[in-house]
Amino acid sequence: MLNTKNTPSIRQLQLFSTLVEHQSISKVAELLHISQPSVSIQLKKMAEQLETELYTISGRKVFITEAGQAVYRAIQSIDTTFSNLQIELNAFKGLQAGTLKIAVDSTAQYLISKVLSPFCHRYPKIDVQLTINNRQTMVKRLKSNEDDFYILSNSPAGVDVIQMPFITNSLVVVANKKHELTRQPHISLNRLQHYPFILREQGSGTRQHIERFCKSHNIKLIERMTIQSNEAIKQFVAENIGLGILSHHTLNQGESSDLVVLDVDNFPINSQWYIMRRTERKLTLLASTFDDYMQNEWQLKS
Amino acid sequence: MLNTKNTPSIRQLQLFSTLVEHQSISKVAELLHISQPSVSIQLKKMAEQLETELYTISGRKVFITEAGQAVYRAIQSIDTTFSNLQIELNAFKGLQAGTLKIAVDSTAQYLISKVLSPFCHRYPKIDVQLTINNRQTMVKRLKSNEDDFYILSNSPAGVDVIQMPFITNSLVVVANKKHELTRQPHISLNRLQHYPFILREQGSGTRQHIERFCKSHNIKLIERMTIQSNEAIKQFVAENIGLGILSHHTLNQGESSDLVVLDVDNFPINSQWYIMRRTERKLTLLASTFDDYMQNEWQLKS
DNA sequence: TAGTTGTATAAATAAAAATCTATACATTTA
DNA sequence: TAAATGTATAGATTTTTATTTATACAACTA
After folding, report:
1. What fold, for A99-167+272-297?
2. In the CATH scheme, what architecture does the domain B99-166+273-298 have?
3. What is the domain partition of chain B in residue ranges?
4. Which pLDDT does position B245 carry in this prediction?
5. Does position B277 have pLDDT exceeding 90, yes or no?
6. Distance B37 CA to D13 C1' (A)
7. Which of A203, A295, B215, B242 could cross-link B198 (Cys pair, CB 3.0–4.6 Å)?
């Protein structure tokens, strides 16, 4: 930790560096528009604090001692540190304004805050315009190039995107904790076909995964209800209206709910969340900073 | 030149760096034994001056922004600069005391000040004990190991020394400006044998050179006077009592004298001044610093 | 040697930076 | 919801730093 005692003030450093450069106390005074005694006194104090002679005066000439030269070099080093800092800070100032537009598949809404909140703390002046909706809507927005970034579980056909694997998405079967399947191990897919389900609507990413899964495993689920919200599904499942298939991110939201994850064969359905952007969309400074952030801190290590 | 405006004070840097390290304003206050509002205010001021948010406070947690991280890195750099400076200065403090003992052949006394004065200005606290005498005395002192350094025109036999060529010593023939040899070109050595000379005493370096020179050129000079001082010789020569043979360093001491250098064949007698020290003598810190100085700034480039 | 130039010291003052107390506000925890 | 914890603001005060004027001194320069 920086030591304040025995450390000359910034002003004193300035005076001394000017002295070294002009070898004259009165010249320093003139250049900095202050009186000669002021310079005299400050420099003397500084040398006293450092307990070292930094210069000598012989007649009317100023000689910088070796110790003084060392101090001068240190000042120059500090000077460049400050200059570089200024340049860095100016770069950050470019990030103090601007809006980052991100569109998120609603199933991913539970994790977006984890991702976004560190970024927002680091760049507190930025605005984020967040659009949360189902996959179909995301794809529409992606095609009409409305946002900087999209978070989807896989990339749609027909659009050039740059994508980065992000976080693993696991779809699990949930039930009320009093449901008969609870605590049963290795439930077969076939048995599932006899229970009613509450599912997300057509066009949602979750629904898409489920349908693909059912097709490939050759099963058909009973669909008692279709709801556009994961949260609502959880409530109906909790009231034992039926089973649900949800991303595990939507669960364990802290509240000790009545929901239980079932141990079904071939589950969870694993897929990947991707963050993507259109190849031809020009990155704003802010967007590019966000891109760096995602790559450095969220890129999935395979 | 260091910019005082928009530059945070050293104290503010200290506060901020402590903040980064402990992520809490009240913790900083506690650690530095000041009140919490004081820290709050100073940090706020600092951020205002830099026109950048360095941290944000959310609830009771402190988050350092990216800009803040940059500032922190800068502070660390400044910190190490100061630490290194302290170490350097402490090394110089070792040189604030101590006596440097130097013995100089009196013929070289005219140049010793040129050599010594920059050194003394750079290390103003040191003492120099200077012995000026003729060569014989120098050699005696060298043998009894009395001084750190010796300046002689060549090394004596029988003592282990480390020597460094230094400055060229040219012995020239001088006369009063009204002397008949003045303005004559190419005076032969033979003609010199008919004029009386005023010379340095036996045992002086100059005398040694002259004798060696006469021997090798097979001439003999008329010796009217022997004097132990170059300055005195100059006065007698100026009064036209005789010719003199002196180091050119002893001349052109500013005063527009009555002395003229004669254009004698085989003159000047060139030889070398050496600075030397006994091999087995242990160097004090001060002596070693002087040694470095001589090597870096006075070593004769051949 | 007188005048000029450059630096040092003293004493007073000004400006600035840093601090405190008291209080209010906000968030988290019990 | 009350208590605890952490931060912000206001206003007054203290401390430190910086500066000034006036004067003295010292060393060059003409």
Report:
1. D-Maltodextrin-Binding Protein; domain 2 (3.40.190)
2. 3-Layer(aba) Sandwich (3.40)
3. 10-82, 99-166+273-298, 168-271
4. 92
5. yes
6. 15
7. B242
Q: How confident is the model at residue B73 (pLDDT cuts 50, 70, 90)?
A: very high
> Which of chain C's bases lie under 7 Å from a protein CB?
5-11, 17-23, 26-28
Q: Do A89 and B123 touch (CB under 8 A)?
A: no
Residue B5 has pLDDT above 80, yes or no: no
Q: Which amino acid is at A45?
A: K
Q: Which of A188-192, B121-125, B243-247, B264-268 has the lowest mean pLDDT?
A: B121-125
DSSP chain A: ----TTPPPHHHHHHHHHHHHH--HHHHHHHTTS-HHHHHHHHHHHHHHHTS--EEEETTEEEE-HHHHHHHHHHHHHHHHHHHHHHHHHHHHTTSS-EEEEEEEGGGHHHHHHHHHHHHHHSTT-EEEEEEE-HHHHHHHHHTT--SEEEESSPPTTS-EEEEEEEEEEEEEEEETTSTTTT-SSB-HHHHTTSEEEEEPTTSHHHHHHHHHHHHHT---EEEEEES-HHHHHHHHHTTS-EEEEEGGGS-SSS--SEEE--BTT-SEEEEEEEEEETTSPPPHHHHHHHHHHHHHTPPP-
Its CATH architecture, for the domain B168-271, is 3-Layer(aba) Sandwich (3.40)
> What was the pLDDT predicted at A74?
93
Give pLDDT tens digits for A7-53: 898 989 988 999 998 898 988 898 888 889 999 999 998 988 888 88
Q: What is the pLDDT of residues B179-191, one digit of tens each?
A: 888 888 888 888 8
Per-residue pLDDT tens digits for B121-180: 788 788 888 898 888 888 999 999 999 999 988 778 788 999 998 888 888 999 888 888
Q: Which pLDDT value is given to residue B252?
A: 64
Contacts of A95 in chain B (CB under 8 A): 66
Q: Which CATH number fits domain A10-93: 1.10.10.10, 3.40.50.720, 2.160.20.10, 3.30.420.10?
A: 1.10.10.10
Chain B contacts of A67, Cβ < 8 Å?
Answer: 88-89, 92
Nearest CB neighbour to A18, from listed B1, B70, B93 = B1
- Fold for B10-82, please state it: Arc Repressor Mutant, subunit A (1.10.10)
> Per residue in B251-266, pLDDT tens?
765 455 678 888 898 8
CB-CB: which of A11, A58, A124 is closest to B53? A124
Domains A99-167+272-297 and A168-271 share a fold: yes
**Chain A residues 48-77 within 7 Å (CB) of strand C:** 57, 60, 62
| pLDDT of res. B275 | 92
Strand D closer than 7 Å to the CB of B41?
yes
Instruction: Spell out which residues of chain A touch residue B65, defining contact as CB-CB under 8 Å.
Output: 92, 121-124
Q: Do A125 and B11 touch (CB under 8 A)?
A: no
